Recover the amino acids of this structure.
């Protein structure tokens, strides 16, 4: 029996892009659901991971595309990169919207001489599944949009409420559709371990054949242990036992595979002595936990690790909304020199307005937990829209002016 399609946040955005542009490329980590979603928007599907279809495409890509019902999904296009030239020529000759969808590797885009899509193909980013997608509620508005429209005191929490064990379990499950939706709990770690192994062997070599899988895996594991942390490059390459240049190349490789993100530091003339180092995140908390070889029991015994994984998990929930968001937020972190003040996540919108978020692995929070948000509010004045302290308890309440404590689950729970 065919598995029912689980709607994604990006679906309406894809509909709009297909109506407006001749060619759309969906980018994101392997196995996040790109092909499944793109197929829902296509009339013709070319699976170039099929040897017969890829051979036919390489032989005469222009003829193959001619006359097919559109939109045409070209899946795993890197298996026959000649098809990109055919797409370019077809779009140049007939720039009607809704002609092509592309999914596949970023390899050719990294090799500038082979990428003919500049100015002709628009990209849309897809992430692993947010919790509200897993709950079949992809059409609901994002937390940031709800806060801007109605204020944070109108947020809601599920009944019965979740506790820290529930949140850790959600983080360890992650957002890849296969383990999150279809596999039993006992099989999820096996799937994630296999994903890591394929990533550092097969997937990495599609971009850079010179990389040593064993050393790359060590570096991958070091990055995982530092997810949601600000750490200097020397610490990373020494912990992984590789040279600085190798570490930089490995990190760029993992970013190009969409599994690691460097969230930039935010700065403003209103605040002095802010650090400029990025904060590194795994895009999926379950993947980070797998790379760390940890499980629920071990996480619950380590307060620092709970904090890291919840921060990583929360960032992933927000990230899933970005491509579809009308407010087009940009995600940053804030830290003053010496760690005197630190804000986990800051979302900047139009006119420099910001919503700032602190993530606390605590069931009860108080005004002291909002001290960094209060500092930021005082410095930014009217640019500071709201601050949120997201915690693992059930309560929603005001901590200070324009600063509210809310359960993490408010990110995906609709108000009744």
């Amino acid at each position: 029996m065919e598995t029912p399609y689980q709607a994604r946040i990006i679906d309406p955005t894809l509909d709009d892009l297909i109506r407006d542009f001749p060619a759309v490329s969906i980018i994101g980590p392997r196995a996040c659901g790109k092909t499944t979603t793109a197929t829902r928007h296509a009339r013709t599907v070319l699976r170039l991971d099929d040897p017969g279809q890829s051979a036919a495409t390489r032989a005469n890509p222009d003829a193959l595309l001619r006359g097919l019902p559109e939109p045409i999904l070209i899946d795993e296009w890197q298996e026959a990169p000649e098809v990109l030239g055919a797409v370019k020529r077809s779009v140049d000759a007939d720039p009607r919207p809704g002609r092509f969808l592309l999914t596949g590797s970023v390899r050719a885009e990294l090799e500038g001489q082979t990428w003919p899509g500049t100015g002709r193909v628009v990209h849309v980013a897809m992430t692993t599944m947010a919790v509200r997608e897993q709950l079949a509620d992809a059409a609901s508005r994002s937390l940031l949009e709800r806060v801007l429209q109605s204020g944070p005191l109108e947020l809601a929490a599920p009944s019965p409420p979740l506790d820290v064990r529930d949140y850790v379990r959600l983080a360890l499950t992650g957002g890849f559709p296969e383990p999150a939706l279809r596999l039993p709990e006992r099989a999820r770690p096996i799937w994630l371990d296999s994903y890591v192994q394929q990533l550092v062997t097969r997937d990495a070599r599609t971009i850079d054949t010179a990389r040593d899988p064993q050393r790359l895996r060590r570096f991958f594991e070091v990055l995982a242990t530092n997810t949601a942390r600000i750490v200097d490059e020397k610490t990373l390459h020494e912990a992984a036992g590789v040279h600085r240049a190798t570490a930089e190349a490995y990190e760029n490789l993992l970013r190009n595979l969409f599994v690691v993100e460097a969230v930039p530091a935010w700065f403003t003339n209103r605040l002095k002595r802010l650090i400029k180092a990025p904060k590194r995140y795994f895009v999926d908390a379950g993947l980070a936990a797998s790379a760390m070889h940890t499980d629920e029991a071990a996480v619950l015994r380590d307060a620092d690790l709970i904090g890291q994984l919840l921060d990583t998990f929360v960032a992933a929930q927000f990230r899933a909304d970005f491509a579809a968001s009308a407010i087009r937020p940009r995600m940053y972190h804030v830290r003053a020199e010496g760690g005197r003040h630190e804000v986990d996540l800051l979302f900047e919108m139009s006119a420099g307005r910001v919503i700032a978020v602190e993530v606390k692995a605590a069931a009860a929070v108080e005004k002291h937990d909002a001290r960094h948000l209060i500092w930021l509010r005082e410095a930014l004045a009217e640019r500071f829209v709201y601050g949120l302290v997201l915690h693992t308890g059930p309560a929603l309440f005001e901590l200070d002016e324009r600063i509210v404590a809310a359960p993490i689950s408010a990110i995906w729970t609709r108000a009744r």
